Amino acid sequence: MKQYKYISLKLSWGEYRTSKEKGKLSHREVIDSMAERGWKYVDHVPVLSDGYGRISAYDLVFERDTAE
């Protein structure tokens, strides 16, 4: 069985940063950190647009196998 975790990132001064989790890490730092803990990066999901078609926030999606 798979377990999923979602981490929200928001655009902040031209870079995506976590809003509250992980001490405001960039998307690359979040992916590296999660990989170290056994999570696999799967995809991202846009969750907020700025009204001009640009994504201003998205969720990074991670997965890992769970012990059944």
Describe this structure in words.
This protein has 68 residues and is mostly beta strands. The chain has one domain. The chain is 15% helix and 53% strand. The longest helix has 10 residues. The mean pLDDT is 84.
Short structural description:
The mean pLDDT is 84. This protein has a four-stranded antiparallel beta sheet, covered by helices on one side. The protein has one helix and four strands.
Topology overview:
Layout lengths: L1 E11 L2 E4 L8 H10 L3 E10 L5 E11 L3
Antiparallel strand pairs: 1-2, 1-4, 3-4
- How many domains would you count in the coordinates? 1
Biggest sheet character: 4 strands, antiparallel
Overall mean pLDDT stands at: 84
Name the overall outline.
flat
| Poorly predicted runs | none
Largest beta sheet: strand ordering:
2-1-4-3
**What is the ordering of alpha helices and beta strands?**
EEHEE
How far apart, in Å, are the first and last alpha carbons? 7 Å
